[in-house]
Amino acid sequence: MxxxxxxxxxxxxVLGQILKEKQIAPEKLHLEIIDEESEEKSIxxxxxVDEVLDQLxxxxxxxxxxxxxxxxxxxxxxxxxxxNGLMPLIFTKKQLKSRSFSGAQGVADRADMRPGVGDTxxxxxxxxxxxxxxxxxxxxxxxxxxxKPWKIAENLDIIVPFGYNTVIVKSRQNKKKKPVRDxxxxxxxxx
Length: 191
Prior knowledge:
The protein is α/β, with parallel strands linked by helices and 191 residues long. It has 7 helices and 8 strands; from the N terminus they run αβαβαβααβαββββα.
């Protein structure tokens, strides 16, 4: 079962709150994208992986895309390289699932070729299939975009499924206000 995601239209503040909650510095973030299956699956979703990548392009220092349509992302890779100097890595989904490739990533981590796995955030845009919980076992932060519902909490915050758990992303409209005490509370707490 899959769920549409209305929060993809303005994803930059959502990503910022997720990084803050997980204590990942934006400059150290290694974003991994698992591409959606095909365009007919997302026919009713107005915002897909391409639009989210366009929103995040200026914010990224490291990007890896796992897809079954690598030619589709070549134009994006060339454009983002010219504009931002970012050279995204594009791999097939078969490489994501293979054990030998994950072992090669561990070698790359030790060689300081990219940030550690704790700074890796995986956004899974697939509509069908199971969640990639093996990525959690590797220590990566995994968010299924369409496989689990994102809900609104009572105070308009967003409850984001995060692997096995959830993360509450604060709404931009709810700024933290200083609590106001009435005169009885003031009298109680005064010396």
